[in-house]
């Protein structure tokens, strides 16, 4: 009997020891898991800070990691010669007559832009990065990464690229009539665009941006919308250009992309500037500034005007809220705009320029409203509805100052006031 009691005690003692051992092991694992989590969490958070490396501005695979893709192979001839692929440096030299200065059609922080003709007689625009400079390398890779993936009537197409001998050369389709800005003001203004043409150009650019924002799972944010980055072809079809600062949009479960501020002064979303949180609504803000450029025929920033007039967006909103937007319309449009079309256009631009992104429309909404403004323009029944017939606008009562925009004062302002943005000035 005594032996049975002793055996029972021994069994209970062993069971208790076993449970204590198991609890110790489980407890140790839990403590280890917590310790590892605490150690890794700060590292993960640091990785999410708004810091951009050379290739981070892309959001896509860097060019040098595309080794086996069609991008990295020398192209065979196609309908565009070198559609989205490498072009030999010798072919680029031949197309531009060895980079003849007489063929320069533009320039910016990235380098010169030349007009060229490939050996299959296709006209192209050749953007050559400054030789030996690596400053534009991230933008170079971004343009290739973005434009090799997309094709749209209202986006400039990439024909090919060249990186031989440390060159950074991008070859685009040639857009005959150049930047929208040159048709609104500048040193060599083209024949003035009428109101219908301006509306159709704005609608085309809006379609291109809408495609960027919605045509992919994450979308693409342009980040540098301005009148110099909207080009016009021979049929006055608008094409959005210059994707060097583009970023992939936020993931499905995120509201924004945390990133350093880049863009152009006068067009920069103030919320993005303050918070360094990028969304597609930042493009909407910039596009709103372009809409007022189109309406008023002046730069986004002109430091030579009076203090109240320097910033186009603020100045135009002030007149719009007073119900006197017609006082600042481009004199070239006098007698051309129907009041209801002007009203809808002004309301659309104002909504784009809302202080907070959540209050701005999507590019799809902007597109719909611009198409409606065009419909109102076309459906007006009599010429008496034109703006000048309402006696609210005429060359005499317009408050807009006539200026000679031989220089791009918005670029001057950028260098003087917002030097932190200058690394990304006009590519």
Automatic annotation (TrEMBL):
<dbReference type="GO" id="GO:0004674">
    <property type="term" value="F:protein serine/threonine kinase activity"/>
</dbReference>
<dbReference type="InterPro" id="IPR045272">
    <property type="entry name" value="ANXUR1/2-like"/>
</dbReference>
<keyword id="KW-1133">Transmembrane helix</keyword>
<keyword id="KW-0808">Transferase</keyword>
<keyword id="KW-0067">ATP-binding</keyword>
<feature type="compositionally biased region" description="Polar residues">
    <location>
        <begin position="387"/>
        <end position="396"/>
    </location>
</feature>
<feature type="compositionally biased region" description="Basic and acidic residues">
    <location>
        <begin position="397"/>
        <end position="406"/>
    </location>
</feature>
<dbReference type="InterPro" id="IPR008271">
    <property type="entry name" value="Ser/Thr_kinase_AS"/>
</dbReference>
<dbReference type="Pfam" id="PF07714">
    <property type="entry name" value="PK_Tyr_Ser-Thr"/>
</dbReference>
<keyword id="KW-0732">Signal</keyword>
<keyword id="KW-0418">Kinase</keyword>
<dbReference type="InterPro" id="IPR001245">
    <property type="entry name" value="Ser-Thr/Tyr_kinase_cat_dom"/>
</dbReference>
<dbReference type="InterPro" id="IPR011009">
    <property type="entry name" value="Kinase-like_dom_sf"/>
</dbReference>
<keyword id="KW-0325">Glycoprotein</keyword>
<keyword id="KW-0812">Transmembrane</keyword>
<feature type="region of interest" description="Disordered">
    <location>
        <begin position="381"/>
        <end position="406"/>
    </location>
</feature>
<dbReference type="GO" id="GO:0009506">
    <property type="term" value="C:plasmodesma"/>
</dbReference>
<dbReference type="GO" id="GO:0005524">
    <property type="term" value="F:ATP binding"/>
</dbReference>
<keyword id="KW-0472">Membrane</keyword>
<feature type="domain" description="Protein kinase">
    <location>
        <begin position="99"/>
        <end position="373"/>
    </location>
</feature>
<dbReference type="InterPro" id="IPR017441">
    <property type="entry name" value="Protein_kinase_ATP_BS"/>
</dbReference>
<keyword id="KW-0723">Serine/threonine-protein kinase</keyword>
<comment type="similarity">
    <text>Belongs to the protein kinase superfamily.</text>
</comment>
<feature type="binding site">
    <location>
        <position position="127"/>
    </location>
    <ligand>
        <name>ATP</name>
    </ligand>
</feature>
<keyword id="KW-0547">Nucleotide-binding</keyword>
<keyword id="KW-0675">Receptor</keyword>
<dbReference type="InterPro" id="IPR000719">
    <property type="entry name" value="Prot_kinase_dom"/>
</dbReference>
<feature type="transmembrane region" description="Helical">
    <location>
        <begin position="21"/>
        <end position="41"/>
    </location>
</feature>
<protein>
    <submittedName>
        <fullName>Receptor-like protein kinase</fullName>
    </submittedName>
</protein>
<dbReference type="GO" id="GO:0005886">
    <property type="term" value="C:plasma membrane"/>
</dbReference>
<dbReference type="GO" id="GO:0004714">
    <property type="term" value="F:transmembrane receptor protein tyrosine kinase activity"/>
</dbReference>
């Amino acid at each position: 009997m005594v032996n049975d009691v002793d055996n029972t005690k021994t069994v209970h003692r062993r069971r208790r020891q076993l449970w204590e051992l198991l609890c110790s092991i489980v407890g140790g694992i839990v403590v280890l898991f917590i310790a590892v989590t605490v150690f890794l969490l700060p590292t993960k958070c640091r990785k999410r800070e708004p810091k951009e490396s050379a290739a981070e501005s892309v959001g896509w695979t860097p060019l040098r990691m595309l080794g086996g893709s069609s991008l990295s192979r020398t192209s065979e001839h196609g309908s565009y010669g070198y559609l989205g692929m490498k072009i030999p440096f010798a072919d680029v030299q031949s197309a531009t007559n060895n980079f003849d200065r007489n063929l320069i059609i533009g320039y910016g922080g990235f380098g010169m832009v030349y007009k060229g003709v490939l050996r299959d007689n296709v006209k192209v625009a050749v953007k050559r990065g400054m030789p030996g400079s690596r400053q534009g390398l991230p933008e170079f890779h971004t343009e290739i990464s973005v434009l090799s993936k997309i094709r749209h009537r209202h986006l400039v197409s990439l024909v090919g690229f060249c990186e031989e001998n440390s060159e950074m050369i991008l070859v685009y389709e040639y857009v005959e009539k150049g930047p929208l800005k040159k048709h609104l003001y500048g040193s060599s203004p083209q024949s003035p665009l009428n109101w219908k043409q301006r509306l159709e150009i704005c609608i085309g650019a809006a379609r291109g941006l809408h495609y960027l924002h919605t045509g992919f799972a994450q979308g693409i944010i342009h980040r540098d919308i301005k009148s110099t980055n909207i080009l016009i072809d021979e049929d006055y079809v608008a094409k959005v250009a210059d994707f060097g600062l583009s970023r992939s949009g936020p993931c499905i479960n995120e509201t924004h992309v945390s990133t350093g501020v880049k863009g152009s002064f006068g067009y920069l979303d103030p919320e993005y500037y303050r918070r360094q949180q990028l969304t597609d609504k930042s493009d909407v803000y910039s596009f709103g500034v372009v809409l007022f450029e189109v309406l008023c025929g002046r730069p986004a920033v002109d430091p030579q005007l009076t203090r109240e007039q320097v910033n186009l967006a603020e100045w135009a909103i002030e007149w719009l809220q007073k119900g006197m937007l017609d006082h600042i319309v481009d004199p070239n449009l006098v007698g051309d705009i129907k009041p209801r079309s002007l009203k809808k256009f002004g309301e659309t631009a104002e909504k784009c320029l809302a202080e907070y992104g959540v209050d701005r429309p999507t590019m799809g909404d902007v597109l719909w409203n611009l198409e409606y403004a065009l419909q109102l323009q076309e459906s007006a029944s009599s010429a008496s509805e034109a703006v000048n017939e309402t006696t609210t606008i005429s060359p005499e009562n317009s408050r807009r100052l006539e200026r000679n925009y031989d220089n791009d004062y918005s670029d001057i302002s950028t260098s003087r006031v917002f030097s932190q943005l200058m690394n990304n000035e006009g590519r």
